[in-house]
Amino acid sequence: MMKRTPDFSLFLAVVKAGTLSEASRVLGMSAAAISKYLSQLEQHMKLRLLARSARGFHLTEHGRELFESLDHMLPELTPILGEPMSRLDHPTGTLKVVSSIALGRHRVAPLLSEFSARYPEVSIQLQLGDAPEDLFRSGVDVVISPGEPIDQSLVARRLITHPCCLCAAPDYLARRPAPAHPRELHQHDCLILDCHGAFRDRWVLRDPRGGTHTIKVAPHKITDNSEQLKQWLLDGHGLALKSEWDIAEHLRRGELVKVLPDYEMPRLSFYVIYGGRQLIPAKTRVFVQFIENQLRPRENPERLRA
C-alpha cells in the first residue's frame, strides 16, 4: 500500500505512452518498476485501473474515468501538490535549527559548511539558545539540546553523552578552600545553569565506594546561558557543574580546577529532536543523518526512516 499521496502524473504518462516499453523509455524507469507502481496505485485506490494481457494493457472503466479527470485537473493541481511532495524526497528549502549555545557554537556551526556543500539547495538558519516550547508553531525543524523533550510527539535521538566535572577557578579556591565531601557544598557559592536538560540546583555525585550523594545546593548565581556560566567560573564567582569537553582547554591551562575529583559526576546527554516519524521533509532527514554521523561517528545510530 502507498503511504503517500500517489503521483498521478506518472499514471497519466504511462497511459499516454500506450505501452510499458514506451513508458519505460519516456520516463527512464524500468518496466518492472512501472508495473509495481501501477499495482500499488490500484491497491491504494482499491480499484482495477488497467486490464493487462500479453499484448500490453488497456484502461478499465474506472481507469478511463480517472485518466480523463486527471488529464483536466492535474495541470492545475501540480503546483499545489507537486512541490510539497517533492520536498519529501529532495532536500531543499530553509532548515531552521536551534542548538544549545556551547554545543552549537563549538560543534554544530563548524559542520554547516560541509553540510551546505553536500546539499546546496538547503539554506540553514541556526539559532543558539533554548528551543521554543512549541516547535511547530515557531517553525523550527530540528533542535539539538541536552535532555529529552517533554512533548512525547517529538522524536529524540541521543547524539552524544559527555562526562561532567565540578570545577572552580584557582582564585576562588584560594579564598574558599575546596570541599572535601559533597555535604560541604552548602558552604560554597554554587553557580546554576537553569535551562532544559540542565542539572539546576540538584547535584548527584557518586563516591568511590558507589554511594550516591544527592545535594540540593543553594544558588549563588543563576543563568540560562552556558557561556555566561563558564565566564562566571573563570572570573572566580564560585563552583559549577560543567561538561568536560566545554572546559577542557581551561582545565589544561590551569584556569579551572576540578573539585571533588574522586567523585563521579552526572553525565550530560545531547539529543537531536524533530517532529514526527512520518512524512519527514528530506531537508530534515538528511540533516539528522549528517549530524549523527559527524557527532557520533563510532556508534551505529538507528537509521532514520521516512
UniProtKB/TrEMBL annotation:
HTH lysR-type domain sequence ranges: 1-60
One GO term of the biological process aspect: DNA-templated transcription
Keyword Nucleotidyltransferase: no
Any one GO molecular-function label of the UniProt entry: DNA-binding transcription factor activity
Keywords: DNA-binding, Transcription, Transcription regulation
InterPro entries xref list: LysR-type_TF_proteobact-type, LysR_HTH_N, LysR_subst-bd, WH-like_DNA-bd_sf, WH_DNA-bd_sf
PANTHER family: HTH-TYPE TRANSCRIPTIONAL ACTIVATOR TTDR-RELATED, HTH-TYPE TRANSCRIPTIONAL REGULATOR
Family note: Belongs to the LysR transcriptional regulatory family.
Protein name: Transcriptional regulator, LysR family
Organism of derivation: Alcanivorax dieselolei (strain DSM 16502 / CGMCC 1.3690 / MCCC 1A00001 / B-5)
